[in-house]
Known about the structure:
Helix content is 40%, strand content 15%.
Amino acid sequence: MTAPQARSGMDLTGRRALVTGASRGIGRAIAERLAEAGAHVAVNYHATEPVDVIAGITDRGGRVFAVRADVADEMQVATMMIEVQQRLGGLDILVNNAGICPFYEFLDMPVEIWDRTQAVNLRGVFLTSQAAARIMVDQGTGGRIISISSISALVGGGQQTHYTPTKAGIKSFMQSLAIVLGPHGITCNSVLPGTITTDINREDLSDPAKRAYMEKRIPVGRLGEPEDLAGPVCFLACDEARYVNGAELLVDGGLFVNLQ
Ligand code: NAD
Ligand code: RM4
């Protein structure tokens, strides 16, 4: 008997993707991986145009362009989605990655810190997901919405009282969207990184004792790198993951299960 022919692995040739907050860190690694798999990628950024990201992907033969928007701003998201649709000719994959975590003590926290964290992390995911879903439903060819939640959706954080609810909210939002958009062939999942070294926690992890403590708690013996998230996200974007819907994928080196 002949074995079934193996599929081609993580192939996104012809797919059109938008990654939010992709100027650095985890978002950048995801954009690079999707482009490497053959997708045409729109790299969203907020402040400084990520010329290095665009040049790096282009130099390796990838198809990419940068598009500016503050994901918390309704008008800017609407404008970005028009540009994305025009330049990509449609949209098949949305990766909601943009996020902030200004570490702050609860008792001293001004409400503005709470509001801005909710706005970027949760309102932003609503705005981009709704706009992307409208495009995908109109296209009628399905799609993928993948949101970067966090291990913080499952556990608390002493200086993250404003942040952990947004990450739990993102996970919950993807579960509900999976029900709403599944009938359209659009799968919605969340990815939960553990502790990954990026700008978001550079200062927090600059204390050698804290860093050593975190490393010791992770069974694989190291903190994560942005590239550790790129493969799992790429997998969820691929055909091989077509029946994964409403799921959460923890990518933390075993940190969460290491309780005792
Ligand atoms: P990072 O600070 O390097 O990247 C965050 C990105 O989001 C940047 O490109 C930034 O410009 C962008 N961004 C911020 N506000 C924005 C806005 N209003 N509009 C558009 N873009 C905006 O940090 P990172 O670790 O790469 O974070 C990426 C995502 O991963 C975040 O959602 C974060 O919560 C999540 N995450 C990170 C970790 C970690 O340990 N690093 C763990 C779990 C989850
Ligand atoms: C994550 C997790 C990490 C932290 C980042 C900022 O969700 O809590 O440990 O470094 O957020």
